[in-house]
Write a structure and sequence with these properties.
The protein is of the alpha/beta class and 292 residues long. It contains 13 helices and ten strands.
Length: 292
């Protein structure tokens, strides 16, 4: 089974937990091939990734350097960063027919091998149904500006099963890039905006437990085994995250000693991130206390 990630330096702390949870709960880790798009990682970061994955017996690991700004610098950034768009390039970097793309802010408690042989029914992607697109962040853009039916299904792009054979047959990568060039300042959710705008509900559905959102103020999503997705901000590993995110202890349970030593030590960039997401901290605090 092929699994891909797309990360920068800031995503390294989350990646370690995502990988540990993925492999500890996988019925056959040695059948997994890992591909990681790396934006601005140094050699120490790469060595840490290799060490973690080799510890599980994985030998098919490919780290792929890419310059996110060079590819996507004309698109709307996420706080000055373009890394998230990288998954659009996977049809070129992975020559297999399918790949499971995963964000690095997940705890994976189920066995991803359950997706082997998934029936795409001819679709290019499969994702969890996120509800009608009229409830999305970009609903006015989707429905009023480009004319998508407000009742079609939307999806979160943090967990995507991609039919790369269909992507290459239809050159969907360049369709995505063309969409982005047409609406560079409308991409509030980066690649997720592009993919929802381009596919407009035309995707296969994964079972809901493959992408359960867990917001900082919320209780744990109700499911025995699931992919828990720490959506929004703050994240469990952010500065003061253990006080603000109700999923902190679940996340920390998959943080091994080596990864904690390498990445769970706050620096200037973490304080800068707090400033950028200060409204999210305030909102989380108010919602948590309202719930109580």
């Amino acid at each position: 089974m092929n699994i891909a990630f797309n990360i920068n330096k800031l995503a390294m702390i989350g990646l370690g937990v995502t990988l540990n949870s993925l492999l500890k709960n996988c019925s056959n880790p040695k059948k997994i091939n890992i591909y990681i798009l790396c934006a601005d990682l140094n050699q120490d970061d790469k060595e840490n990734i290799y060490k973690l994955l080799f510890g599980y017996g994985l030998i098919n690991v490919e780290l792929i350097d890419f310059n996110a700004k060079e590819h996507f610098g004309n698109f709307k950034s996420l706080q000055g960063d373009w890394t998230a768009y990288g998954r659009i390039l996977l049809q070129d970097y992975i020559l297999e027919d399918t790949v499971l793309y995963l964000d690095a802010d997940l705890v994976i408690e189920l066995d991803v091998m359950k997706l082997e042989g998934f029936d795409f029914q001819g679709k290019a992607i499969a994702a969890v149904n996120g509800g009608p697109i009229r409830y999305s962040l970009e609903n006015l853009f989707f429905c009023d500006e480009i004319g998508i039916n407000p009742e079609v299904a939307s999806f979160n792009s943090g967990v995507l099963l991609m039919n790369l054979k269909v992507w290459r047959q239809n050159d969907i990568k360049n369709q995505c890039l063309a969409f982005g060039r047409s609406y560079p300042n409308k991409l509030k959710s980066a690649d997720q905006t592009i993919l929802n705008g381009l596919f407009a509900g035309n995707f296969a559905f994964l079972p809901n437990e493959f992408n359960l959102p867990w917001y900082a103020h919320s209780d744990r999503p109700r499911s025995k085994k699931a992919i828990l997705h720490f959506v929004g901000s703050p994240k469990p590993w952010d500065l003061f995250g253990k006080y603000f995110h109700n999923g902190f202890l679940v996340w920390k349970s998959y943080l091994d000693t080596a990864w904690k030593k390498a990445y769970y030590n706050h620096n200037y960039n973490d304080f800068l991130r707090v400033w950028h997401i200060r409204k999210s901290y305030a909102r989380s605090f108010m919602l948590k206390n309202k719930i109580k």
